[in-house]
Amino acid sequence: MTAPYSDAEVADLAARLLDHSLPKAQWTHAAHLTATMRLVRTRDDDLERDMPRIIQTYNVAVGGVNDDHNGYHETITQAYLAAIRAFVAALPAGIGDGEASARLLATPMGDKAWPLGFWSRERLFSVAARRGWVEPDLKPLEAPVSLPA
Description:
Blueprint: H1 7-18, H2 29-42, H3 47-61, H4 74-90, H5 97-105, H6 121-124, H7 127-131
Helix pairs in contact: 1-2, 1-5, 2-4, 2-5, 3-4
């Protein structure tokens, strides 16, 4: 499996998210997942608490807004964070960040539509789901695990 990012690029991606120097155009779905994976693997703090601030301040720093229709989305963020935590916990020992990112992006989470397997579009994109955690209405959230090597 070819990694879309090298180990160093994964570390740089997460660092640039945190210091707000990552250009908005580079903040893709793959970058969201990869940076989150790196933070899960390297930080001991409470990401469930801190990720909203990390994303909200990044959005503002690159000219975005966080309101009822744009920017930070609590339900999507917390769903991906929980799934990425489970993914990281299932990784074999010794897998570098680049390879882990490739494996992560090859799971169903690599598809931006992944949350719509659990939430209806109406519920997921509601103001309530953007502002706070809203339980899935289609099926319980299941976290994909790493793929075989």
